[in-house]
Write a sequence for this structure.
């Protein structure tokens, strides 16, 4: 797994830390045939085989539709909850008692425990199969579409929507660049 904590994203993180709610989700990206075949000695590829063929996943925490904070690149077969929990543990949040909204892919007791250790309030609906379902804040969960909108805007960039890079760290650099471009487009237009 390649973490997307890059130095150019520090400015966006400082602004985003003021937020009271964060969102966690992942999106799959198809890997082009030229992306496969890097030597193992060069580094992690972050490409996996799944139903859709060779894919990668971008797991991201954001504070709004144009404020991506931290992300990681994994193979397409990696479960959302596994990468999401490690991303929550790695990310530093400025304040305690902030909300983090996730979809049912992260619905597990360990998610609630991990968020509680970090001082976060998990907003994740329980699966219908849970024997002891928990309550969650539906009005915050309704804003979870902000991360989906961010992924949609990032996938407007061809290098993010279709992976051509052999190494995960190079692909992560392009994702970082796309996040910065989206942020600057909004920031420059509002100041």
């Amino acid at each position: 797994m390649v973490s997307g904590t890059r130095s150019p994203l520090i400015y966006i993180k400082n602004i985003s830390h003021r937020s009271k709610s964060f969102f966690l989700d992942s999106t799959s990206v198809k890997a082009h045939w030229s992306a496969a075949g890097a030597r193992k000695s060069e580094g992690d590829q972050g490409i996996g085989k799944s139903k859709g063929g060779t894919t990668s996943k971008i797991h991201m925490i954001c504070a709004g539709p144009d404020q991506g904070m931290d992300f990681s690149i994994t193979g397409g077969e990696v479960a959302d909850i596994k990468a999401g929990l490690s991303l929550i543990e790695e990310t530093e949040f400025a304040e305690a008692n902030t909300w983090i909204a996730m979809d049912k892919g992260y619905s597990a007791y360990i998610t609630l425990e991990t968020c509680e250790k970090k001082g976060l309030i998990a907003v994740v609906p329980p699966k219908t199969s849970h024997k002891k379902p928990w309550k969650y804040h539906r009005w915050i969960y309704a804003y979870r579409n902000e991360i989906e909108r961010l992924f949609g805007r990032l996938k407007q960039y061809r290098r993010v929507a279709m992976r051509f890079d052999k190494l995960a760290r190079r692909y992560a650099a392009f994702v970082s660049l796309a996040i910065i471009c989206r942020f600057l487009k909004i920031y420059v237009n509002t100041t």
Q: What stands out?
A: Residues 32 and 164 are 5 Å apart (CA to CA). Helices lie at 10-16, 80-90, 109-117, 138-141, 145-154, 158-161, 168-190.
